[in-house]
């Protein structure tokens, strides 16, 4: 083999493409129902966008970004998350001048993070994300969460719970930072190098550490919910009321801070209980300051990101993937070399009538053509050639009943299309 795919990436092969299509179609349907329009942003952006937007103390920026210099000596980064690019497009496209809220989604957007590849977590993966710009009410988050739960349940996933938290705003978060530093005190010296670096710059990031010794220390830390200002507290209580009104199960989890610095107030994750552990399928939250920080007007916003590979993996693990559809409806078989051109042209006539059609491209014998048609899942085989074709007809064989019928060559394509469309009740 000349080469292999880079570590942490994988191919989408033809036999699994239908699963991606199924998932993407469902996402598009729900996005349209909720009034979201599609947006597509570049695979790479100027590095500064992520330094300013995502935050210099996050693992994404400090450890996981694919950054390089282009031929113009500009620092370029492959997109490590979707929101910053969507905000940049929102500003550059002057979408803020349109009636708000502006509701957009992106689908199968490639995301790049240099991290240890695991099942459902790749260095290149693809996200479905939604962003709502201009909505300040907690109904924005409640709507996004409702859509997520509707999507996941419609796919057959169960045992789902939404974990929510509020990480406050510019007014109340500094107060919590002081309380957290006071609690950590001398304990910070027993924590990992990353946590020690975050202690002065952004102590909230310490709550997101995954190392067991650090998690044990912060388990007794004060809750950020005790430091919320009146506005943030009211917002969070209203969100809980909206989730309850929609019948969405949720749990308040003060340990959720998410891994991005732009979040304010609401953060959430959808957790699926698998045995004794919970698996985070996706997450998001509110980011009321990001648009302004990137040079735009004061615009509240919220959104989420969901990894397609993670969802497809869970569907497979739980036996929820639908069977692959047949590849064709009609196979046009030639009876001999002298009929290959006629069979080829007949196949094109069927395709012009939107009939999924295949014909021989490999010089197979008639017996081999029938075997191939069966492997494709064809419903009918059209036999072109022989005595029937000499008198102006083709033979149509139903591969389920083995019944054969002769059809005039000139009428056969339309007749077959009619049968397949279901407009003709009786089988021929």
Question: What do these coordinates show?
Answer:
With 428 residues, the chain is an alpha+beta fold. It folds into two domains: 249 residues, 2-Layer Sandwich (BirA Bifunctional Protein, domain 2); 92 residues, Rossmann fold. Helices cover 36% and strands 22% of the residues. The protein is built from 15 helices and 16 strands. The strands form three sheets. An eight-stranded mixed sheet has the order 1-5-6-11-10-9-7-8. The protein has a five-stranded mixed sheet with strand order 13-12-14-15-16, with helices on both faces. Helix 5 packs parallel to helix 9. It is elongated. The two termini are 50 Å apart. The relative contact order is 0.11. The C terminus is likely disordered.
Short description:
This protein has 428 residues and is of the alpha+beta class.
In the sheet with the most strands, the strands line up as: 1-5-6-11-10-9-7-8
Poorly predicted ranges: 423-428
CATH topology of the largest domain: BirA Bifunctional Protein, domain 2
Estimate the strand proportion. 15-25%
Helix fraction? 25-40%
Radius of gyration: 28 Å
Please identify, by name, the CATH architecture of the largest domain.
2-Layer Sandwich
Distance between the termini: 50 Å
CATH class term of the largest domain: Alpha Beta
Q: What descriptive keywords fit this protein?
A:
428 residues, alpha+beta, BirA Bifunctional Protein, domain 2, 2 domains, eight-stranded mixed sheet, five-stranded mixed sheet
